[in-house]
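mind reviewing this fold:
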Amino acid sequence: MRIAVVGSGYVGLVTGACFAESGVNVTCVDLDFDKIYQLKNGAIPIYEPGLESMVRSNVEKKRLSFSTEIKDGIEGSEVIFIAVGTPPDEDGSADLKHVITVAKEIGRIITEHIVVVTKSTVPVGTSEKIRNTIKAEIDKRKVTVPFDMASNPEFLKEGAAVDDFLKPERIVIGIDNERTREIMNRLYMPFVLNNHPILFMDIASAEITKYAANAMLATRISFINEIANLCDILGADINNVRKGIGSDSRIGSKFIYPGTGYGGSCFPKDVKAIIRTAKDNGYELNVIEAVEKANEYQKNVIFNKITRFFDYDLKNKVIGIWGLSFKPKTDDIREASSIILIEKLLNAGAKIKAYDPAAINETKKLLGNRIEYTSDPYEALENADALALMTEWAEFHLPEFNRMSELMKRKVIFDGRNIYDPAQLRKLGFTYFGIGRR
């Protein structure tokens, strides 16, 4: 089987590599010449565990190739995935210009039946816009070329995307005819041998499923963060509360870990987009709007704790930052709480020394030389007035606290992920602040 994936960013590259791993012949297409040059030469432009070796292996086996021309991908393919970016517009809606550009190009090129699949996260009705755009381009050519549409939203967690694709909990596919069902079922069959289902449904339902899933997860995060903030006020411990509610089978323990707010490329964008979609259709998503508002508040929690501790005078205070990416196992800093914290600290006159195992290069692109970057977590603590832990990378879980004591000017830790034991740190002479911890 031969397919094409247009867009070689995070979703597109993982999709292409994983399909190639199953024996499919895949052409990944991207208009970014530098990116395609890197990929052809074995360099991976994103950080994702397990992806680099998979890409190189399948390139060597000639199952995976890269091109800047959509035509190279379409020729002989049964399926073409659209996996380009859909960044938020100023009003929060998804910007579909890249998706529509790809649709126009497909309509100008196809000569035989193909299934066009939206892999990008798009609002309800986008598949119809793509269908109409392709058909309009075909009509301009005064020819008749059959094609079908499908929606196949991705559910990939950054840092675990390869495993998520190869061993999916479920695969959601929106279709409107049996021929498309047969093609998509054949394509995905190797990935459901673990008995997890392919959920076929109408296209509109598939399109909204991704937004609904991310909005629900974001809701759980904002909920537990608000309860943690209440624990701070009342002197309770959110870890005990979390265990108490998480043991209820109706609630469960996933996504009820308090922190500094959700970030990344999906949750913030998708929450805004579903709110915008509802408003465009005359409906208010009151709960989800509150989720977004709570998350914006949460991103200031650590800054507020730091400013209160230092009596609202941060001028020339040195703050060590551990963790820049929005979550572990990725270099993605989009909507990261660490970046918001750093900007606020800088504006207040503080000096920043930051360390991250993967995201320093991405942070340099954004912040330049406004902060000091270190190659070692302990270097970020030299002469520091406080440590703010913002990402729960594994290497931060069991640090040498005695060494930290010797390096820091003041033994103060602001734990934005609640990975440390407050009682233990206080015995070691540290002043400790968590999220909802007594």
Notes: The chain has a mean pLDDT of 95.
